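Researcher: Next entry in the queue.
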Amino acid sequence: MITIKNYLVFILLINVSWAQTKNSILLPVKNSGNIKLVECEIQGLPVDFIFDTGASNTTISKDVFIDLLKRGYTFKSEGELRFSLADGSVGVADIYSTDKFGIEDFELSDVTFVVMPNSDAPNLLGQNVFKRFSSYTVKENFIEFILTDQSTDKDKIVFSEKNAEGYAADLIQFTFLTNSIFWMLEYPDLPFNVTDEQIAYDTRTDKKYMKLFFVLKDGLAHKNSYDIEYKSITDAAMNSFVNTEDICFGSFGSDPDFTHQKFLIANISWVECHFIYKFKDTDAEDTIILLLDQDFLHKLKSGGLICNLNYYRQPW
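Model: Structure for this entry, 316 residues:
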C-alpha cells in the first residue's frame, strides 16, 4: 500500500535525479511573427532581446543602457565598434562588458555588449553569447543551450552555486510543505499555505539565508488579534515541522552524499520562517530562525533530512 509519505518521497527522488543530470538550459521564447523574443538579465535587470543568429555581437539600445546606469550599475569599457549605415556612412557604438549576464538560472561573466546610439534600436542576442555554449537548439517555444567547457571557470562556479541553492531551497520548501500536510491532518482548522522559497543575502554577516512564508488564511480571520496568542501556534507548528520523525525520510536514493554536498556548496546558513496570520482587525507576523548547523549537514550525509533542529525567534 502506497502511503502519502512514500508518495511524497518518490516525487522528491525524481527531483533529485533531475538535479543530478541537468546539463542544459531551457530559455523560453515568445514568438512575434518570424521574430523570437527572449528574456535575459544584465546585472539582474530583465532585458528583452531578439534572438538573432545572424548578429555577431549582442546589442542593446541607448535607452536600456541609460536605465542600467540610473540603477547604479557600472560596466567596463571595451572600446568602440564601427559599422556601416544604409546611406553608406559609418556609425560608431561603444562596447562594454558585464560580469553578470543571466540566461534563466545560468550566469555568464565577461559578456560584451554593444550600446547602439539609437534609443529605438532593437536589443539583439548575438553569437558572442551563443559561442559560450557547446551548442543550442531552437524549438518553437524555447531554446535549449547545452553547457560546455567553453564557459569560463567562473561561469561554472557561479552556475554550480546557483544550482545548489535551488536544490537546497526546493528540498527545504518541499520538506515544510510535506509536514504542513501532516499538520493540517492534526489541526484541520489551522492549515498553513507554504509559499515558494526565497534566497537572500545578509550584508551584516556576509551569509546567505532562505526565507519561507507560512500563511494562515483561514481559521482566525473571524477573530481579533488580541484574542489569540498566535505565537503559541507558531511554536506548535515548528515543533511539528522540525521535531518529528515524519520529516526524516531516511534516504535520498543511492547517493545521500550528493545532497550533503549540494547544501555545502549552496552555503545557506539559516532559514527564516515567517508565519503570517490573517485576523479580523489586522495581519500579524511571527518570525522563527531555523539554524542549519553541522549536525544538520551530518544528518543529510547519513540520509536523513531535518530532525530536531534548533530554532528561535529573531536574533536582531
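Model: The chain is about 30% helix and 35% strand.
Researcher: Noted, moving on.
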